[in-house]
Specification:
Helix content: 25-40%
Distance between the termini: 66 Å
Number of strands: 18
Strand content: 15-25%
Number of helices: 12
Structural class: alpha+beta
Shape: globular
């Protein structure tokens, strides 16, 4: 743990002039305000630094726009992408009128989830380990006007470029669904990923690995160690920040969109999770896959609430372009050990009880990690409290089931509007805990419908011209 005094000493000792205060908006994008070092003192870590929150997406209107950012001293690191030495610190938001934590701040909601876990007596720590995939592109163009709409992405690794004049074209383009794990020269991003990984380490993220992913066109993944709920979300935001900025340095661009390429695998964010108490893991036991009854009930809660959960863990219209059969997509709401065709997988981690965990494979990195982790924890705890039976495991390749067998397996919602409808009908597991408020849930649903679902429904799609122009 780092104290405010230690952060202030670091600022003095290294003669740091600029302090970059980062916070997250409702949809899940980092925002920042940079202040001169003399604007920060010990009170900044308890009372906060005032700012105007009137234009932050998903927050309250201009009449309630005065906010304060409360600095978390445990999140301080020197920003590697700024010319002037700048200390980056992640913040949570308070309302200055009341001095209370702001109930629409995602990081505050995440803390309430942790507090709720402790209050139940079931555990004191929730660990999360997200695995966020992404694409590295060389070019991206998109636009939407009254009379046109298009997107264009390109990658030197794209299989579609095998016949392009590249002066010379060397021909090393991963085939569709064959990007996992070819060596160089087919994998052309080794050095970029290594720089991304080492830069993350400089920002305090406990790094583990990096590799190419399945899809053609530059799909990749970096790995970092699991962490406590809030620190794991902090690390994930740092992960995304570092990856995008290192790519920019190389003249490339990164997207975490779940499905930017048609006809190949999309990008997910499988989330490993477990609960501990007094330093001891609680998910290891003598039940199926060496799980405890608590872990099975946690799975029961995840599976029961999955349709509503996906409105938060898969919160974009593009999320449901990935959640379709045929691309290793976790559309089947079942659980199984070592089986990646089920939406909940129990990794085969050996006999070490500390490694026993479950992996929820549905989420993607368009989600706000503070909200996603908090919502998954609430669903799992609801399963434990109500001893929700997850049913029998499905230890077979679900993708190869007959239509009759597959009809018996529940599946994920097919679109964002269906997931939002599920959340509308099933959110007591989030609000009865006091973690999420009714105001937040309704605001989330209204925001997503008005700004994403309905806007997509209003606009012609390019493929509709292919299908219908000559009608």
């Amino acid at each position: 743990m780092t104290t405010p005094q230690e952060v202030l000493k670091l600022i003095r000792d290294q003669n740091i002039q600029m302090i970059d205060l980062k916070f997250i908006d409702t949809p899940g994008t980092w925002q920042h305000l940079t202040v001169y070092h003399n604007q920060i003192d010990e009170s900044s870590f308890s009372d906060g630094v005032p700012f105007d929150g009137s234009s932050i997406r998903g927050w309250k209107g201009i009449e309630e726009s005065d906010m304060t950012m409360v600095l978390d001293p445990n999140t301080a690191w020197i920003d590697p992408f700024m010319q002037e030495p700048t200390l980056s610190i992640i913040c949570s938001i308070k309302e200055p009128r009341t001095g209370e934590w702001y109930n629409r701040c995602p990081r505050v909601i995440a803390q309430k989830a942790v507090d709720y876990l402790v209050s139940t007596g079931l555990g004191d720590t929730a660990f999360f380990g997200p695995e966020a995939e992404f694409f590295i592109f060389d070019d991206v163009r998109f636009d939407q006007t009254a009379n046109s709409g298009y997107y264009y992405v390109d990658s030197v690794e794209g299989r579609w470029n095998s016949g392009r004049e590249e002066g010379p074209n060397l021909g090393y383009k991963p085939r569709f669904k064959e990007g996992y794990f070819p060596v160089s020269p087919t994998d052309s991003f080794q050095d970029i990923r290594t720089e991304m990984l080492l830069t993350m380490a400089k920002c305090g993220v406990p790094i583990e690995k990096q590799h190419h992913e399945v899809a053609t066109g530059g799909q990749c993944e970096l790995g970092f160690r699991f962490g406590k709920l809030i620190e794991a979300a902090d690390w994930l935001m740092t992960y995304k920040y570092v990856i995008k900025n290192v790519a920019k340095k190389y003249g490339k661009t990164v997207t975490f969109m779940p499905k930017p390429i048609f006809g190949d695998n999309g990008s997910g964010m499988h989330c490993h999770q477990s609960i501990w108490k007094d330093g001891q893991p609680l998910f290891a036991g003598n039940e199926y896959a060496k799980l405890s009854k608590m872990a099975l009930h946690y799975i029961g809660g995840i599976l029961k609430h999955a349709p509503a959960l996906l409105a938060i863990t898969n919160p974009t219209t593009n999320s449901y372009k990935r959640l379709v059969p045929g691309y290793e997509a976790p559309v089947n709401l079942a659980y199984s050990q070592g089986n990646r065709s089920a939406s909940v997988r129990i990794p085969l981690s050996g006999d070490n009880p500390k490694a026993k965990r479950l992996e929820f494979r549905c989420p993607d990195a368009t989600s706000n990690p503070y909200l996603a982790f908090a919502a998954m924890l609430c669903a799992g705890l609801d399963g434990i409290k109500n001893q929700i039976d997850p049913g029998e495991p499905l230890d077979k390749n679900i993708y190869e089931l007959s239509p009759e067998e597959l009809a018996k397996v529940p599946s994920t919602p097919g679109s964002l509007d269906k997931a939002l409808a599920a959340l509308e009908n099933d959110h007591a597991f989030l609000t009865d805990t006091g973690v999420f408020t009714e105001d937040f849930i309704q605001n989330w649903i209204d925001y997503k419908l008005a700004n994403e679902v309905e806007q997509m429904q209003l606009r012609p799609h390019p493929y509709e011209f292919f299908l219908y122009y000559d009608c």
